[in-house]
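Bumping my old thread because nobody answered last time. Still need a sequence for this structure:
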């Protein structure tokens, strides 16, 4: 939030027009408008007068001073307004959390950054057996990592992107030579169920990404690279189904993505049919985990979903 945004925000909360605020600090309404549009910047003395007229702490308007605890608190308040960031007390510890919902900027990249930071700090934490020289090396590496962030973040993404592509290049040999490209959404759903049969651990969810409802599949990159041949075969067939749909014309995006500091493969689509299938899959998984789970009912639901989605993919491009 710029200085102009802040002046406008607190003037509006005070119920003042630009002209009214201007007259309170011996300025014109036009000058306040210039401040709010960040065309001009008030001098510190005038900023103090504006804060007094708005009955707010001047720290709210000044640039953050991280040596000033009050300024740090107001920085936290601003992060709450933008990202829904806040602290919750759990016993004697305050934990950082992010609110979800409308009005907040998506905080996922911040959460991923925090995860990367936490992992790097733990990795370079001095050990009781470390020599003075080793401790000094760790402190220096940690300082350099922080100074270079997010360059290190991008380099990690690039490295894992290369690992992901290398894995696919080797794993493609696991596909059956008689395999045919899928043509219906049912075939895609069956390949997803095959992951369950091989007990492959993954996440399938429906969420909003950049204001678009999306079906998102994620799997731990290191996990699948080191999984059994049968697991890899089931996954590479499922992955190829995504690629088949992409060839037909369905919107499919794939990229390495960090989650809680661990690199994952993410595959995303805004296709309504895939979103519906993911929602159905999620509902089935919840039923499967229920104490009242009935296997016959569960299998009947699977067959019904396969029947309903036995429709040509190309008709929905």
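Sorry it took so long. Here it is:
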């Amino acid at each position: 939030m710029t200085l102009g945004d802040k002046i406008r925000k607190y003037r509006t909360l005070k119920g003042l027009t630009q002209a009214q605020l201007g007259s309170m600090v011996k300025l014109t309404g036009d000058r306040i408008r210039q401040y709010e549009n960040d065309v001009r910047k008030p001098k510190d003395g005038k900023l103090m007068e504006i804060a007094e007229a708005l009955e707010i702490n001047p720290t709210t308007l000044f640039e953050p001073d991280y040596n000033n605890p009050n300024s740090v608190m107001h920085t936290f308040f601003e992060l709450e307004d933008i990202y829904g960031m806040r602290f919750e007390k759990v016993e004697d510890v305050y934990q950082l959390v992010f609110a979800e919902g409308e009005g907040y900027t998506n905080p996922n990249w911040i959460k991923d950054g925090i995860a990367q930071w936490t992992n790097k700090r733990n990795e370079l934490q001095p050990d009781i057996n470390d020599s003075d020289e080793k401790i000094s090396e760790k402190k220096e590496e940690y300082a350099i990592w922080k100074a270079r962030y997010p360059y290190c973040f991008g380099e990690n993404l690039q490295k894992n992107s290369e690992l992901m592509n290398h894995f696919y290049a080797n794993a493609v040999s696991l596909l059956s030579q008689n395999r045919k490209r899928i043509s219906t959404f049912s075939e895609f759903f069956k390949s997803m169920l095959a992951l369950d049969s091989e007990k492959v651990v993954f996440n399938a969810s429906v969420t909003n990404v950049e204001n678009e409802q999306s079906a998102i599949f994620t799997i731990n990159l290191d996990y699948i690279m080191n999984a059994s041949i049968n697991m890899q075969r089931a996954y590479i067939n499922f992955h190829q189904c995504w690629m088949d749909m992409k060839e037909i014309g369905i919107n499919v995006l794939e990229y390495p993505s960090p989650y809680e500091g661990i690199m994952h493969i993410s595959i995303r689509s805004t296709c309504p049919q895939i979103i519906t299938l993911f929602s159905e899959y999620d509902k089935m998984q919840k039923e499967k985990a229920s104490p009242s789970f009935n296997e016959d009912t569960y299998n009947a639901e699977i067959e019904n979903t396969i029947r309903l989605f036995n429709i040509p993919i190309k008709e929905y491009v």
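The first strand starts at residue 85 and ends at 90. Let me know if any region looks off to you.
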